[in-house]
Amino acid sequence: MTEHTLKAHGEDLDNLTAEVARLGGLAEAEVSDAIQAIARRDVALAQSVIGRDERLDALEAEVERAAIRVIALRQLMADDLRRAVAAMKIASNLERCGDLAKNIAKRAIVIAEAEPITPLTRSIERMGRLVVGRLKDVLDAFASADKARAISVWSRDQEVDELYDSLFRELLTYMMGDPRMIGACAHLLFVAKNLERIGDHATNIAEIVHYQITGTDVGSPRPKLDFFTREPE
């Protein structure tokens, strides 16, 4: 393989990594803004998140096409092939994060019309900050090919589950105490579930980053909290 070919491989893969990083920035902003829309009862911000999701979908499709093109034209092998496949898989997880953020934004519009439930929205905001932080950390791990940082995100998966469990119980308490709050609390429960799923996607990305760097799986079961009838994943 000539020096020119190696350089072309590197440039193509660097461009692919940059596009995934851009997609990650959009997804991270959507999740953060969706949470802020709930916390501030900001309908305009929620509508903005919903409107921006199409751009994220389009960029994910562009990343997939670019990855397939690089694999086909450059006949990648070993580390380079893992890097291209990882970019495609991570883009898919980020697109799902965007969809979940859009769902949260839709709930935010409905919640804004109900009576404020400040303690619960603060709990949602706290969970949202944790999830956004994990998403940011795992995207940084991908951009810098940092295995240790990816494992750190992976190992903290249970933190999100614990917050979801706590919030679930808190919401049930409110609904049992005042049936008039059932509607708003149900929407907040869906928001919490969507945040938990975003946390799972961050963990998925951490596993992908680990495999990209090492060529091996993490090698142990994912740390999940088992509550109610939920089984470890």
Give a verbal description of the structure.
Residues 227-233 have low confidence and may be disordered. It contains 7 helices and no strands. Helices cover 84% and strands 0% of the residues. With 233 residues, it is mainly α. The chain starts with a helix and ends in a 19-residue tail after the last helix. The protein has one domain (3-214): Phosphate transport system protein phou homolog 2, domain 2 (Methane Monooxygenase Hydroxylase, Chain G, domain 1, Up-down Bundle).
What is the 3D shape?
A: elongated
Q: Please state the average pLDDT score.
A: 87
Binned strand content: under 5%
Helix content: over 70%
The total tally of domains equals 1
The computed structural class is mainly alpha
As for the CATH topology, it is Methane Monooxygenase Hydroxylase, Chain G, domain 1
How many beta-strand elements? 0
Radius of gyration: 19 Å
- CATH A-level architecture: Up-down Bundle
Name of the top-level CATH class: Mainly Alpha
Q: CATH H-level name... which superfamily? A: Phosphate transport system protein phou homolog 2, domain 2
- The number of distinct helices, counting runs of at least 4 residues, comes to 7
Indicate the topology:
Elements: H1 3-40, H2 43-74, H3 78-112, H4 118-144, H5 147-155, H6 157-177, H7 182-214
Helix pairs in contact: 1-2, 1-3, 1-4, 2-3, 3-7, 4-5, 4-6, 4-7, 5-7, 6-7
Could you write a compact summary of the structure shown?
This protein has 233 residues and is mainly alpha-helical. The chain has helices spanning 3-40, 43-74, 78-112, 118-144, 147-155, 157-177, 182-214.
